[in-house]
Amino acid sequence: MKIVSAFRNIDRNLPTAIFIRHGEKCVTSSVENDAHTPLSINGIISSSQLGERLMAIGCNISKIMSSPVQRCLHTAQILIKGNRSNLSIEEDYILKHAFIENPERAYEVFCTLQMSDIVRKQVMHEDLNGFRSIFEGSTSLVNLAISRFEGNKTDIYITHDLLLTTLFFALTNTKAEKIEGEWFDYLDGICLQLIEKDKLRICRETQVFDFYSKFQLS
Question: Which CATH superfamily groups domain 2-212?
Fold first, then answer.
């Protein structure tokens, strides 16, 4: 589990936000049915295993928030069972559409461009019909996490590959030509911490990024 390895580089005394992509989903026949697609058998097994691994390394999960899309909610449900906890799941629309301002207009973009091309255009600050700027979307996600930081607790945010990849590139200033190679697979993710005033730490596997935030943190 890639996200588990990131815990070697975080400060366990600080609150942590884990943003992860949902587990493997069933194959869907159309874009229209995509939001209602549950996890595949492999997705169920691996999501449960992630919950077990987080428990085994002493990850103190305080909250689980999820995109309202079925595969994300299903991931949250299975992860909780694997973690042997009784946490409730909070749904938040921002975990689905942080970078989307008008879903109907954005849908036309999804029908004409590859996901990697969408992220590339955002990273290069090109306008996309129906989308927010990469700055606006990233600020909303960072503030969502930081506003809930408390003690040494860990919050989990279950979201989508497009949103997670865009957030990673926005926070780390990774070059646009690396998008395909840095794409987030199922249950891959990042750990986010506020280690000093306005200073963020991003951990992904063995990678660590420390930098002063360019965002307006609430």
Answer: Phosphoglycerate mutase-like (3.40.50.1240)
